[in-house]
Amino acid sequence: HGALYALFPILWILVAALWIYRLSVESGQFEIVKETLAGLTPDRRLQALLVAFAFGAFLEGTAGYGVPVAITSAMLISLGFPPVSAALVCLVANSSPVAFAAAGVPVTVAADIAGLDVMSVSRYVGLLLPPLSILVPLWLCVMLCGWRASLEVLPAIIVAGFTLAGTQFLGARLLGPWTTGVLSGLATLAALGVLDVVGIR
Predict the structure, then answer these.
(1) Contact present, 137 and 155 (Cβ < 8 Å)
(2) DSSP label at 146?
(3) Strand, helix or coil at 145?
(4) Separation of alpha carbons 111 and 194, rounded Å
(5) What is the spatial distance between Cα 32 and Cα 3, in angstroms, rounded to a whole number?
(6) What are phi and psi of 84, to 5 degrees?
(7) Which is higher by pLDDT, 1 or 137?
(8) Cα 143 off chain centre by
(9) DSSP secondary structure string, 155-167?
(10) How far apart are alpha carbons 126 and 164 in whole angstroms?
(11) Exposed e or buried b for every residue in 71-98, given b needs 16+ CB within 10 A?
């Protein structure tokens, strides 16, 4: 049973995610995504929030299994981040959205193994996870530049943390684990994009 579950849906999701990634690289669309995210701001702190935290959360919701950390680390390195720093930032950023990875596989597997209702487990995770999601953006910025410089982008930190946390809470309660990761990442990207458009850092 475990081997079959590893083949489908886990391996299926991973293969599909890598195929889409390779397709986007070969077609040049990945460069467009990278340049769009990087073009929003030259500020390293905000780039980390956009790429590692928000875009990483979206990738975690769609693919999971290390794919988001690998892709977002490569993006940050191409933006000029030191490799070790990029990897650490992306690993820390991934600590919050990983519960709803790959269309909710961690939650659905936990519910299946424990013999519990998936929605009950999803709601419980939706209660536990938001406090961490609120703290992770601040943690990322402090890792990059210290407390004082992090406070300069406090509006973006607050918006990123509360958007991801709020979407995770609502998604986990109302929609279940399947779409919560994707929606929370997209909502956070959109919120940070709006913040940039209106000129609030």
Answers:
(1) no
(2) -
(3) helix
(4) 36
(5) 38
(6) -65, -40
(7) 137
(8) 17
(9) HHHHHHHHHHHHH
(10) 11
(11) bbbbbbbebebeeebbbbbbebbbebbb
Helix (H, G, I), strand (E, B) or coil at 19: helix
* Contact of 160 with 40, CB cutoff 8 Å: no
Q: Which positions ≥6 away from 168 have C-beta within 8 Å?
A: 97, 100, 126, 129, 130, 133, 180, 184
> Which pair of structure tokens corresponds to residue 85?
């720093």
Contact between 122 and 172 under an 8 Å Cβ cutoff? The reply is yes
**pTM for the full model?**
0.84
Per residue in 7-26, pLDDT (tens digit) is 666 666 667 666 777 777 78
Confidence (pLDDT) at 78: 82
Looking at residue 185, its pLDDT comes to 94
Q: What tokens appear for 169 in the block?
A: 């809470």
Cα(192)–Cα(88) distance, rounded to whole angstroms? Answer: 22
Q: What is the pLDDT of residues 56-111, one digit of tens each?
A: 999 999 887 778 888 888 888 888 899 899 999 999 999 989 999 888 889 998 99
Across the chain, the runs of DSSP E, i.e. the strands, are none
